[in-house]
Amino acid sequence: MHAVSVDHYENFPVASVLCPPRLRPAVAAIYWFARTADDIADEGDASPAERLAALAQYRAALESTVAGQAVTGPWQGVFGPLAEAMKVHHLPPALLRDLLSAFEQDVVKHDYADRAELLDYCRRSANPVGRLLLHLYGVDDDPARRQSDAICTALQLINFWQDLGVDTARGRLYPPMVDVARHGVTAQALLERQDTAATRALVADLVRWSRELMLSGAPLAHRVPGRAGWELRLVVQGGLRILDRIEGMDFASIAKRPTLRWFDVPLLFWRALCMRPAAVPMASKAT
Q: Cα separations (Å) of 231 from 6, 20, 36, 275?
């Protein structure tokens, strides 16, 4: 379960050995649908108008698929498998439409007034993926959906703070402007990637918010059955470990992008193993 768009869905459980074999084609179909739309919105040198026009065509292809009509052309390889997944698993089309609305927004909107506005973006850019996976796993109740939303939103936010320097260099400001102003930071300072005490305090605040969201959703890993539940544990712990890394560099992610290394893997497995339904361990400060 992973938030999108997150660096080409790098943590999306596509073809993972932990993903149940019967679900792998559907998971891969959802992945390629989302990744292709993300690329249309974000890759290459097309103009915003060209990107929006391509996304409109992509949306039309989705509606054709929903209507049971075959899609031809450059995206046939995306919508053919998606059509099969929708037929076999009855995927809710509204969640796929939400994803597209977020990618369309990416083309034209590059800053957010407050947390509510950013959460609304995450509701469409990240949460649909978790809900689609819950649907595949047969977990379908309101508490599970809320926990899934918390995990997916947290992963999206974690990626924003991890990529703070990358995004600001591209003119994108994901820290809510209310929080930015409250910490005495300016939008211009972020765009110029100024690593200051105020900027670090802002990131620390955003990291705390993201950690709280992740921990509130983490018990869902014990509701998702079988190997998929173990995969979700690793996804949760991977997100928490990125927050450790940001904290370990004194929240200076605007200056340097924190990453996970090979030696983090055993720790992630250990923390996944130690997770309990009633008390998910909070990752410790990175060293």
A: 17, 10, 24, 12
